[in-house]
Amino acid sequence: MATSAARRRPSRVRSAGRRGTGSTVLRTLARIGLAVRGIMYVIIGWLAVRIAFGNSRQQADRTGALHEVAATPAGQLLLWVIVVGFAGLALWRLAEAAARSAAKPASRLASLGRAVIYGVIAFGTLKYVLGLGAPQSSNQQSVDLTAAALKYPAGRAIVVVAGLVLIGGGLYLAYQAWRREFRKDLQTTRMTARTRKAVEWLGVAGGIARGIVFVTAGIFLVIAAVRSQPQQAKGVDSALRALAATPLGPWLLVLVAIGLIMFGAYSCCQARWFRD
What we know:
By secondary structure, the chain is mostly helical. It is built from ten helices and no strands.
């Protein structure tokens, strides 16, 4: 009897998860969140373009994007929309994790990881809206976390592993984008042929650009660990700026920045046609 009940628990959890992901409220929150994520990427990409041409001192990361939003006439209202959007994405990913089969622990873990990331972003933005301090820049976060890890005996190995995970994740993102695997998350049958091609192009270019940023950040994290120099670790902003120091000069940064803007546009399209 007890064994039978234990076996039924995962099924009940998955059923509840499926009901959660399919609820009208959660779908609406997820759509708002995807659109908000897209707008944030567009702003980050635009900041990166301005940095490439020396026209901005603003950080090209989430913190910089929040400052840009806050400076608009409707800044306070828009910041609350960002909080709701990312909180909605976190809840959606949690429900998705619950709906995942226990036979696919990697997929469930990935959904949980995304839920945590979106939850942290929502909480950081909420603190900013309430006047409790702006979110720490991605650069400072990377340096602080690396410095804290390197204080421990196994810290160097941990940071190297984290860097390799970022590199692997970036390569995987780029590979997924190149293979157009994101199409399974879209209701492509509801698009016209021209719209479908445009959305696919945005997804490919945007996914590859995101992958490049992850790989760049991962490389610098490994360098920071090998040299025991936490200041070598780089967040999104510093990783983007590092691209401008390559032989291609600012043009590589411009290309990646445009790719991030395209990913932002793709995320907005996903909000319109996403498959729950």
